[in-house]
Amino acid sequence: xxxxxxxxxxxxxxxxxxxxxxxxxxxxxxxxxxxxxxxxxxxxxxxxxxxxxxxxxxxxxxxxxxxxxxxxxxxxxxxxxxxxxxxxxxxxxxxxxxxxxxxxxxxxxxxxxxxxxxxxxxx
Amino acid sequence: xxxxxxxxxxxxxxxxxxxxxxxxxxxxxxxxxxxxxxxxxxxxxxxxxxxxxxxxxxxxxxxxxxxxxxxxxxxxxxxxxxxxxxxxxxxxxxxxxxxxxxxxxxxxxxxxxxxxxxxxxxxxxxxxxxxxxxxxxxxxxxxxxxx
Lengths: 123, 147
Prior knowledge:
The complex is a heterodimer of chains A (about 120) and B (about 150). Chain A is mostly helical. Chain A is built from six helices and no strands. In chain A, helix 5 crosses helix 6. Chain A starts with a helix and ends in an 8-residue tail after the last helix. Chain B has eight helices and no strands. In chain B, about 85% of the residues lie in helices and about 0% in strands. Chain B has one domain. The N and C termini of chain B lie far apart (about 65 Å). The chains are: A mainly alpha (about 120), B mainly alpha (about 150).
């Protein structure tokens, strides 16, 4: 049962983040790029204020998989780095925390660009 | 024909098809929720394999990005995104798609100014403002430490 609730809340909270994004797309003129930027910055701000951590504890991947979770990871990384290295940490923490995701996106991007043909846009 | 911006707005609103919120919202909710559930399953698997919480989260992100990249390569992610809307945009898979899709699309313009440069057309702003916000947060934290 506990296992089920974990997935249930991941689904509901993760879905809710996407629902808000869809509302922004449909009701405002925000482009997808702006929405992604807003989500990441919101994640940093909410992470910094300590609001996001309880959501992560509650919803697990429902909070870490949406892009706000990436922002939260950046904030957490900076927090840890500042505690260890002082002001230097403000400059190193973000990229350190984001390294796995950014590197994965770049590397798989290159591999896909090398291995796949451009799909035709007619379909 | 002269018209004000407000009139022009009205005209474009009339011309563009109405988005059906009762269709787009549940679809975004369900598809986004399912992607997060997949993330939860991967996270549980990696935790079970003995990774600590931070690493399990990172490896989950890498795996989701891997899936998204190859689905994009096969042209399937766009097909899901047609229904998913923000449900496929907001999760980290959408970020990966925004990197991989232009990397593939602009291959014809070369591997340097095509693939490599266009890769960051959406990810670039995300990284710039994400990192900028995190640095501001770090400086605030540092100043609080001094006090």
